[in-house]
Amino acid sequence: MLDVLTHAAESFIGVFNQGGAVFVGFVTGILPTLIVLLTAVYALIELIGEHRIQGIARFASKNVILRYSLLPFLAVFFLTNPMAYTFGTFLRERHKPAFYDAAVSLVHPTTGLFPHCNPGELFVWMGVATGITTLAMNGDTSFSVAKLALFYLIVGLIVAVIKGIVTEWLTLFLAKREGVVFEDDEEEIEVTKAA
Amino acid sequence: MLSTKFRAVKVERGAGGWGGPLVIEPTEQRDKIVAVTGGDIPEVARKLAEMTGATVVDGFRSPPIESEIAAVVVDCGGTARCGVYPRKRIPTINLTPVGQSGPLAQFITEDIYVSAVKVSNMSYATEADETAAPAATPAPATEAKTEKVTAPEPEQDQGGFLGFITSVGRVMGNVVNVLFNSGRRTIDTVVRNVLPFIAFVAMLIGVINATGVGEALAHVLEPLGSNIIGLLVLSAICGLPFLSPILGPGAVIAQVIGAAIIGPAIGTGVIPAAMALPALFAYNTQVGADFVPVGLALGEAKPSTIKVGVPALLLSRQITGPISVLIAYGASFLL
């Protein structure tokens, strides 16, 4: 009887001991670099100033490839999730849904190399990364975590462009079918003038 | 008087909630209660509209312009949405018990935000409450800067060497200030967003590992996770237009699948490492699908744009989700 109780108590606390070990692993493995990197990037953003970044944004919004790759990347890198979506302001109404799609699709692929972009949702990437780290420690993989992170970002950028184009097309299609007219004729002229 | 049409309603925080009480009183201009919750309009939003005499609006289907909003009802788990409206000084009612959290935590204050609200937390306001009614006026843009430490600068005009020393000192002071603020912002983010998630995931992984549920789950998921066809199916499911807004909030589903199931399964070799890249895209097909109207509003999109943009994006995901898995699969051969 006593044995059963002891065993039950042991397995109960065992669950949390295991959880605690995982916690320590995450804290020592992720936080030190993250904290230093976050501080550096926040300082960089503060020193560059948002208005300079906005100048590039205007330029990048005109080309379809740049609009759904460079522009959302800059937005996510400098403004981070969720303020990145405010970059949509620089775009014509018809491009806004597609831009949002591209930008939000980048908030995780960027975290492999630039965890500051979305620290609250790191585990979308970290989960898989820790799996690869485990394998790499045993020498069971042909690639490193850093390489996976780089590929995650590159594929993420390609996917962002495709998503942007498809969503832009669907937006125009739905707008036409439902007779919605985009309310930005004046803004449109303004943007071309500014550029 | 027309104003008899509207009544002030006091909204208090529920069990485990934070902030408030708010007094919501619609006006002729601001007569909409907006539900930004994905799926159905929650009971709280309906009841609040009924009590105040305002109209309840689904923020996903037909978002009104900001100046018409009397209050917003959200169900944000604490990563993004719960701060967006407080930032614009629009009274925000969160159904989940979340306090000051997320990247916009600094804007979430007790006079504009209340959480864990249930229908029973709402009552007609008495006169005494009404004096405390928050004015739904746009906040001055400078408010975000108030936390900054700005040392008083002596404005004496000094020429020559002494002036040079002073200006060097001033620049150095500014740089140090920027660095210090960055550090503080970092620690804030880590404590508010990163550590809570680490705690929750570590607890979950502990339970999953120690009980052996993890292995069982991994084996259930194995047919989906271990080959490209399975991942395409997973992506197509996550991209279903009626499902994606529900799977989205806080990226919780994606984080749990990634951290508690797929990651460990890759670590133990149940799911091959080559599947890591396509898997990252497959279980995250729904990314941001819950956030579309808010994200578009942040980009100052007009209501008509949001109206066509939301279905366009959700439909688009159905197509682009599996395509992105295929591209990632192709790219994984180059790894």
Q: What attributes characterize this protein structure?
A:
A: 195 residues, mainly alpha, elongated, B: 335 residues, five-stranded parallel sheet, 11 helices, 48% helix, globular
Structural class of chain A, please? mainly alpha
Task: Give the H and E element order of chain B.
Answer: EEEHEEHEEEHHHHHHHHH
**Regions of chain A with pLDDT < 50 over 5+ consecutive residues?**
none
Q: Can you give the mean pLDDT of chain A? A: 84
Approximate strand percentage of chain A: under 5%
| Number of DSSP-assigned strands of chain B | 8
Strand content of chain B is 5-15%
Distance between the termini of chain A: 82 Å
**How far apart lie the N and C ends of chain B?**
71 Å
Structural class of chain B: alpha/beta
C-alpha Rg of chain A, in Å? 23 Å
Instruction: Supply the number of helical segments of chain B.
Output: 11
Polypeptide structure, described:
The complex is a heterodimer of chains A (195) and B (335). Chain A is mainly alpha-helical and 195 residues long. Helices cover 73% and strands 0% of the residues of chain A. With 335 residues, chain B is an alpha/beta fold. Chain B has helices spanning 43-52, 81-87, 127-130, 160-211, 213-225, 228-238, 244-247, 252-268, 276-282, 292-298, 303-332; strands at residues 9-11, 22-24, 32-36, 55-58, 69-74, 92-94, 113-115, 122-124. In chain B, strand 5, helix 2 (81-87) and strand 6 (92-94) form a beta-alpha-beta unit. The model of chain B is unreliable at 131-155 (pLDDT under 50). Classes of the chains: A mainly alpha (195), B alpha/beta (335).
